[in-house]
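job 3f2a | input accepted
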Amino acid sequence: MVEDYARRLGIDTLFVNAALDAERFYVATGWTHRLTDASGQLGQLEAIVPMVKNIARRGS
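job 3f2a | predicted structure (60 res):
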């Protein structure tokens, strides 16, 4: 799983630009909305939902 691999690399936060129709999936799997000021940097910004997920193990 990507989360396990990222943890092994020492990464504790994941970021994704989700498609609008995938937003419910990401929310259901523990992702939260990420506020961003990257307007226009990614082209069609209105068609994506920036999301973030903390994957740090508790007590780490």
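job 3f2a | The first strand starts at residue 13 and ends at 19.
job 3f2a | closed
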